[in-house]
Design a protein that fits this description.
Helix content: 10-25%
Largest sheet: 12 strands, antiparallel
CATH class of the largest domain: Mainly Beta
Number of strands: 27
Bound molecules: manganese (II) ion
Radius of gyration: 27 Å
Distance between the termini: 17 Å
CATH architecture of the largest domain: Sandwich
Number of helices: 12
Strand content: 25-35%
CATH topology of the largest domain: Jelly Rolls
Shape: elongated
Number of domains: 3
CATH superfamily of the largest domain: Jelly Rolls
Structural class: alpha+beta
Length: 441
């Protein structure tokens, strides 16, 4: 990919200096620059300009330029080469990109990591990805035995286990308690305001991605048991807990957040210790996504959709886990009901987001990256790597909903489609008629 892009930079450069046309002076225009790039990668392709319907002015510019002297896209200043290599289309956009749609990429590998004894956490929220206003992602690691301390928050918490094993607990307001052990591929959903805990289990603790249904959420802003205790007057604690002052003196006076502890007893023993069936939650807050049959399995990959329809407690955060084989495409589509917050679990790929007002942006994604797609914006994702790519499409919504461009074009009257696309009926019939989600490469 790098070599291809370098070729494009070298030979597809366009004149962005002032261009004289007759008596007029035309100012450089970066919008026009990317439009002119639509010509292709070599001077001979310039001849096709008329075919792509460019303006007479742009045509004139091309005809008068000397390709061998063209230095429009040269970049003699400093460069961050590793970043350019990872995302070549950002610095040198493909000719179909145009305009500005705001930031659509960030990476957990750029986010500050808060490390404490027992694990760490870091987050991607609207502070670092300001376009994304609906959801925040937090990645967290707990070593074996370590706790993310008892806490609660203003947002719903959705999670997927990325590694290892954990024990989670959540209390319903009616006093019933949910406890479960989770492993790689499992989900949980804890409602806003419900108190919960997460503890790493053996042999090596756990790592998981949390998704909150607030774009400006911060893991540093959760409501903690330790701080609740630390900032309640001691005599009130004594009265509330019916403890004498010597016991109250032992209570924590500082935040715990993440801290090491002994490994717990077995799940069965913990369930028995809190009162067994009598206090068992009637609601199941975990979901075995890894053992779920794919919602759609296709030659190019598979998609698992989890939302309020198959995981009822999950009322506000819909998810699709997508696996694409090398070369496969998550088909051109958009989401009518919400913006998309995307997390890359494995592999690599390229996404273009096509907006209104002729705007489009292409970016490359790698594992641990976050993508953002505005609501109703068309997008595809292509696996550009040599291994499977896996990513999550997350929505602040009760259901996953998408509109397929193929599906629309094949379900609209064929003559109407011909009028729009200049394709005869036999060519239109080649377009897949039904929503496939994933199209093989
Ligand atoms: Mn999508």
């Amino acid at each position: 990919m790098k070599e291809v892009e370098k070729t494009a930079i070298g030979s597809d450069a366009e004149v962005v200096n002032e261009v004289t046309k007759g008596d007029e002076v035309h100012k450089p225009n970066t919008e026009g620059f990317s439009r002119r790039n639509f010509l292709g990668v070599s001077p001979t392709v310039l001849a096709t300009a008329a075919l792509v319907g460019l303006t007479a002015q742009a045509q004139d510019t091309r005809d008068t330029r000397k390709a061998d002297k063209d230095t429009s896209a040269s970049d003699p200043g400093p460069e961050n080469s590793p970043l350019l290599d990872e995302n070549p289309s950002s610095n040198m956009p493909p000719p179909t990109d145009h305009g500005d749609i705001g930031p659509i990429w960030y990476s957990f590998d750029l986010a500050h990591k808060r490390v404490q004894e027992g694990g760490w956490t870091h987050e991607v929220n609207s502070k670092v990805l300001p376009s994304s206003k609906d959801l925040t992602g937090v990645n967290m690691r707990l070593t074996a035995g370590s706790f993310r301390e008892f806490h609660w928050h203003t947002a719903d918490e959705w999670a997927i286990m990325e590694y290892g094993n954990a024990r989670v607990t959540v209390l319903n307001p009616d006093g019933t308690m949910f406890i479960d052990d989770v492993t790689k591929g499992d989900l949980w959903l804890f409602p806003a305001g419900y108190p919960l805990s997460i503890q790493g289990l053996g042999p090596d603790g756990c790592q998981f991605l949390l998704v909150f249904d607030e774009g400006d959420f911060s893991e540093d802003g959760t409501f903690l048991l330790s701080e609740t205790i630390a900032h309640t007057p001691r005599n009130i604690l004594a009265k509330n807990f019916r403890l004498d002052p010597s016991a109250v003196a032992k209570l924590p006076t500082d935040q715990l957040y993440i801290f090491p502890a002994k490994l717990p007893q077995s799940l069965a023993q913990d369930k028995a210790a809190i009162g067994g069936r009598r206090v068992e939650s009637p609601i199941r807050y975990t979901f075995k996504m890894s053992s779920m049959a794919p919602t759609r399995k296709a030659p190019g990959g598979e998609v698992r959709i989890v939302d309020s329809r198959n995981f009822p407690p999950n009322k506000n955060i819909a998810a699709a886990l997508v696996t694409l084989k090398p070369g496969a495409l998550r088909e051109l589509h958009w989401h009518p009901n919400a913006s998309e917050w995307q997390f890359w679990l494995a592999g690599k790929g390229r996404m273009t987001i096509i907006m209104n007002e002729g705007r489009a942006r292409t970016m490359y994604f790698n594992a641990n990256d976050v993508g953002f797609v505005p609501r109703v914006a068309t997008h595809y994702i292509e696996n550009t790597g040599t291994t499977d790519s896996t990513f999550l499409e997350m929505f602040k919504a009760d259901q996953f909903v998408d509109v397929s461009l193929n599906n629309w074009l094949r379900h609209a009257p064929p003559e109407a489609v011909t009028s729009h696309l200049n394709l005869g009926p036999e060519l239109i019939a080649k377009i897949p008629a039904e929503k496939e989600l994933v199209i093989a490469g």
